[in-house]
Amino acid sequence: MARVLLVEDSPRVAETVGAGMRAHGHTVVVAGGVRAADAALAADPFDIAVVDVGLPDGSGLDWCRAARGSDHQMPILLLTARNDVADRVGGLDAGADDYLGKPFSLEELLARVRALCRRGPRWTDSTRRFGQVTVDGDRRVVTVDGERLALTAREFDIVAVVSSREGRVVPRDELLEAVWGSGNDRAGASLEVLLVRIRRKLAEKGVRDALRTIRQVGYAWALERSKPV
Fold first, then answer.
1. Dihedral of CA 123/182/93/210: which sign?
2. CA proximity to 195, closest of 101, 89, 51, 120
3. Residue 75 burial (CB < 10 Å; 0-12/13-18/19+)?
4. Mean of the pLDDT values across residues 98-107?
5. pTM higher than 0.85, yes or no?
6. Residue 108 confidence (pLDDT) above 80
7. Which of 100, 121, 146, 167 ranks highest by number of CB atoms within 10 Å?
8. Phi, psi (degrees; rounded to nearest 5) at 37
9. What residues are paired with 79 via a beta bridge?
10. What is d(CA 178, CA 158) in angstroms, rounded to the nearest whole number?
């Protein structure tokens, strides 16, 4: 079961969600705002953060950006009363792994938490090297020339799944199932946003065309695996 940081300023919502998650075996620490969330994160590690976008002392989006800037790699699920495309893209660009529009059901929230806490693919060899790029499955880290790439949990899972095929095509539905646990329209829209972000982050380190889109089929990892020395 997961250790959850719930950042929510509404006592009613925090009590209801917290009680529901605890009933399913999760440990929940509630923070009522940005400062309380910072203090909780500084004191203890968490498996996932569930964060309301509208907080009394700041924005959940800004908190998400700051957490990623401080190299916190836990999955982040945003709760938002606004659920149009621009807001969802803004949340993903801030470093969130998923978003859930209000009002929401506790069952859906629990399902999202389970999916986000699910580990990426297991490899018989935990570290794979592709020239200057290394994908470390145990540490869940991608490095370029030894420098860590700032990926979210879902971004890492996408890289891990596609790179594990070493050039073979991963069908789109299979990638959605592996990373999200479903192939619904919302997951599909998120995938496209995250692929753009991954490519941009790799390009900033000088790695281009590593993730290829095979139109109407899926995705492939274009970097050749390094031979053992």
1. positive
2. 89
3. buried
4. 89
5. no
6. yes
7. 100
8. -65, -40
9. 52, 100
10. 9
